[in-house]
């Protein structure tokens, strides 16, 4: 846990440092508060909005390896590892992408994830908990789901979407805060800078929640697409069986943090902030596609 906190703190320090350097070099450090017009202000907000998501994307593989203790299989040491590596390689060939790094991480929860900076520079990993509760057909479908995420470029897409959302959260919160502060100052109710600062913080929280709802909705859409991709690599029934295996173990359905969430599910999955659709709906979509086929 302490190691994860240190890595999280280190990444945030890096993000702040990068933002500060870019704003200073480009001369946009004075534009963030709107002093130079809305055009430069939007550019400055874009630097703030995209820096975190892009750095997280670029660091995703190394970060997840360290925080989750992922064992990368370089030379299979067991029959299962050999089978697992062969499945990933075969699916990568079918999808026309480079074989990702292949890993296993120690966790009692049945889970898996895909991450990486691009479709040809990725990592796919499954948990020991997944290995203990699923048969090989189900695991193959889970791997197919993750490989579909890689082939679809979901990690990059979500990072870019988050960058756009972050940009407009920062931008609109400052525009509205500027209006509120100017009115408060003209009426003599508060100093302009104090009102601006407080209003900006409040609006960033409010707009941040709205942005998360949009990002979560888009993520749920991508999950259906990844299910369909996994089904093409295996079968609709095989993919549905894997999801059903998770549905039978609701106490184990936990989301992985941030962009590493790929096959986890939470008890609050039906709410607006869920990154994954309900398992029942995903299974229904697969079986309906199977019947149409």
Automatic annotation (TrEMBL):
GO molecular function, one term: zinc ion binding
Entry GO terms, CC: plasma membrane
Cofactor(s) named in the record: Zn(2+)
Active site: 146
Keywords: Cell membrane, Hydrolase, Membrane, Metal-binding, Metalloprotease, Protease, Stress response, Transmembrane, Transmembrane helix, Zinc
Subcellular location: Cell membrane
EC number: 3.4.24.-
Chain ranges passing through the membrane: 5-26, 38-58, 155-176, 196-218
Peptidase M48 domain span: 82-288
Main location per the UniProt record: membrane
Keyword Aminoacyl-tRNA synthetase appears in the UniProt entry: no
Record-given protein name: Protease HtpX
InterPro entries the record matches: HtpX_protease (IPR050083), Pept_M48_protease_HtpX (IPR022919), Peptidase_M48 (IPR001915)
HAMAP family in UniProt: Pept_M48_protease_HtpX
Source superkingdom: Bacteria
Similarity field: Belongs to the peptidase M48B family.
Membrane topology, from the record: Multi-pass membrane protein
Binding site for Zn(2+): 145, 149, 223
Single Gene Ontology BP annotation: proteolysis
């Amino acid at each position: 846990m302490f190691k994860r906190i240190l890595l999280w703190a280190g990444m945030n320090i890096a993000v702040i440092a990068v933002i500060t350097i870019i704003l200073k070099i480009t001369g946009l450090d004075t534009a963030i508060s709107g002093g130079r017009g809305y055009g430069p202000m939007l550019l400055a907000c874009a630097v703030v909005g995209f820096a975190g998501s892009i750095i997280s994307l670029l660091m995703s593989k190394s970060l997840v390896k360290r925080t989750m203790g992922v064992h990368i299989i370089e030379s299979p040491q067991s029959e299962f590892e050999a089978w697992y590596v062969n499945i990933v390689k075969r699916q990568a060939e079918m999808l026309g992408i480079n074989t990702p790094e292949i890993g296993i991480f120690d966790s009692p929860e049945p889970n898996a994830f895909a991450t990486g900076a691009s479709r040809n520079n990725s990592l796919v990993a499954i948990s020991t908990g997944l290995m203990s509760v699923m048969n090989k057909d189900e695991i193959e479908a889970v791997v197919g789901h993750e490989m579909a995420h890689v082939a679809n470029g979901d990690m990059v897409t979500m990072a870019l979407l988050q960058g756009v959302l972050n940009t407009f959260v920062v931008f609109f919160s400052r525009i509205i805060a500027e209006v509120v502060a100017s009115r408060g100052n003209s009426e003599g109710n508060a100093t302009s800078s104090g009102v601006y600062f407080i209003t900006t913080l409040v609006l960033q929280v409010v707009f941040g929640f709205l942005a998360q709802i949009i990002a979560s909705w888009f993520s749920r859409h991508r999950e259906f697409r990844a299910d369909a991709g996994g089904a093409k690599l295996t079968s609709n029934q095989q993919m549905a069986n894997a999801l059903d295996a998770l549905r039978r173990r609701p106490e184990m359905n936990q989301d992985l943090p941030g962009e590493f969430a790929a096959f986890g599910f939470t008890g609050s999955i039906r709410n607006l902030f869920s990154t994954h659709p309900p398992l029942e709906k995903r299974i229904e979509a697969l079986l309906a596609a199977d019947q149409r086929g």
